[in-house]
């Protein structure tokens, strides 16, 4: 399970956000806990498959808090399942486009450095190497 914080619809209240690797229908799921202790659950998008040996889905969900209480989650399976990257947009959720070159890998990790640049790491299991995709650096002050 991964966790982060994000700004809610009012732009002032923060909400806790949790992602699980398995929810209803065996898809990763987002759980938002609101300031009034109510919660909402929603599945992430994507077609999720099971491990060919165990028959169980093997996947992970990893979250990070970007600048300005922006919650970001990356979820993917271990056997070429699609990579899904989503973020909060003041209480709404938006799927972010991912370059085709980052699909089909495993063990994704997302981090945000002090300057606000996002770094998405993945294990390219077909070529046994670690790949990193960086966002554009922020403009100088």
Outline the structure in words:
By secondary structure, the protein is mostly beta strands. The protein has one domain. Helix content is 0%, strand content 50%. The chain contains no helices and eleven strands. The strands form three sheets. It has a four-stranded antiparallel sheet with strand order 1-2-3-4, with no helix packed on it. A four-stranded antiparallel sheet has the order 5-6-7-8, with no helix packed on it. Strands 9-10-11 form a three-stranded antiparallel sheet, with no helix packed on it. Strand 5 and strand 6 form a beta hairpin. The chain is flat and about 45 Å long.
Write a brief caption for the model:
The chain has 141 residues and is mainly beta. It has strands at residues 2-7, 14-20, 29-33, 39-43, 59-66, 70-77, 84-89, 92-96, 106-112, 118-124, 129-134. It has one domain (2-134).
SSE order, one letter for each helix or strand? EEEEEEEEEEE
Strand numbers in spatial order across the main sheet: 1-2-3-4
Shape: flat
Helix fraction by DSSP (H/I, runs of at least 4): under 10%
Q: Biggest sheet, open or closed, and with what strands and sense?
A: 4 strands, antiparallel
Low-pLDDT windows of residues: none
Q: Total number of β-strand segments?
A: 11
Number of domains: 1
């Amino acid at each position: 399970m991964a966790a982060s914080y994000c700004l809610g619809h009012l732009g002032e209240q923060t909400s806790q956000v949790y992602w699980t690797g398995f929810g209803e229908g065996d898809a990763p799921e987002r759980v938002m806990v609101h300031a009034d202790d109510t919660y909402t659950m929603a599945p992430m998008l994507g077609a999720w498959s099971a491990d060919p040996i165990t028959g169980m889905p093997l996947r992970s969900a990893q979250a990070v808090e970007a600048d300005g209480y922006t919650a970001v989650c990356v979820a993917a399976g271990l056997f070429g399942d699609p990579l899904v990257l989503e973020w909060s947009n003041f209480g709404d959720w938006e799927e972010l486009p991912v370059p085709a070159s980052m699909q089909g890998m495993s063990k994704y990790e997302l981090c945000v450095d002090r300057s606000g640049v996002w770094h998405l790491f993945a294990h390219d299991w077909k070529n046994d190497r670690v790949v990193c995709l960086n966002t554009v650096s922020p403009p100088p002050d």
